[in-house]
């Protein structure tokens, strides 16, 4: 049996075990198709009666190696790579929700996910209720309906930096017979493994820390294999009843713990096709090989920068769970004992224009849409990523109009501080 490696070793070696004479580095299988010797072999693949590669939209060896690494990092039974984090969250939900269904999500989530859930899924007939995770249990539980199919939250919210009480919401979701889906993008499995706290499915925008260099947009869906779909078969007919598009095969019966992942691949990826390109998953893998080295450096630098900001009189507020007086300090200690991530949310005293002026003054730190890569960068969500949202929606999404999202990179922290200091000094 394959030895179970520790997280750091999985980052470097997981997912790809070459046999004699094979490439040491996971190769890019730049091929859409795969060859078979006879028609019967191919037919069995199409009926899901045999495993093997036939078309890269469904599976590709490069993608599978990298997905397997991510599954191992999270401690899940399987994973699939998607073309983006947006696709990952869409697949994670759509794999168990259809028109007429409902789900509940924390309102403190990434702006793109907020739109996907609140606008686009609604057009597909899937309704969602946004709840404030700070509400008490009774108020949140009142939002569960007979057609509720899952609960969704982000380990560390983008851009607010709120920490989600995974264990609390896993228990609540399970009490109502539905899985908890966690977007673990900001924490990464280096700093938090949501399955250990009862989450059932994890999603990632691999575009962020996992890639780490801002080279490739991508996403991943990981299944713990722990949720008992059959115990709630009436809620999940897509998994527990025959799929007509596969001659009446039933995923839970045919694939057990892999039912959710197989359905996502065999049905959703087949029909919707948001696969990650093998070239991009190769780049993602290079990033993953150093994830365990980069995350601690992001956290160390961010802690120093957060403390600097907190002690500067020109700064109105700082949200970073590593600060002792932070609202999320306790939850951070519980779920992220080794550090959270490099992202800090803060506001300056003064107007919205002051925030813009501060950002325009920065020299080494660039204004970019992106977040969570090696280079320190900054963004004003109200003017950029969240500009489609009304002020009320901004508040609902936990985004203050003056919120500046600073994504602390892995440069020398003194250079980061110097740049912030000069930008503040030059505002007057
Ligand atoms: C960026 C992001 C997404 C969307 O991912 P893309 O790769 O940009 O499509 C989803 N969730 C979180 C938390 C993100 O930061």
Polypeptide structure, described:
- There is one protein chain.
- This protein folds into two domains: 7-287, Aspartate Aminotransferase, domain 2, CATH 3.40.640.10; 292-425, Alpha-Beta Complex (Aspartate Aminotransferase, domain 1).
- It is built from 17 helices and twelve strands.
- By secondary structure, it is an alpha/beta fold.
- The longest helix has 20 residues, at 291-310.
- It binds pyridoxal-5'-phosphate.
- Pyridoxal-5'-phosphate (PLP) binds next to helix 4 and helix 5.
Radius of gyration: 22 Å
Record the strand order, biggest sheet. 1-7-6-5-4-2-3
Oligomer: single chain
Helix % is 25-40%
Name the helix and strand elements from N-terminus to C-terminus, one letter apiece. HHHEHEHEHEHEHEEHHHHHEHEHEEHEH
Distance between the termini: 65 Å
The count of DSSP E runs of length 2 or more, i.e. the number of strands, is: 12
Mean pLDDT: 95
Task: Using the alpha-carbon principal axes, give the shape.
Answer: globular
Number of alpha- plus pi-helical segments: 17
CATH superfamily of the largest domain: Type I PLP-dependent aspartate aminotransferase-like (Major domain)
Structure summarized in a few sentences:
The chain is of the alpha/beta class and about 425 residues long. It is built from 17 helices and 12 strands. Helices cover about 40% and strands about 15% of the residues.
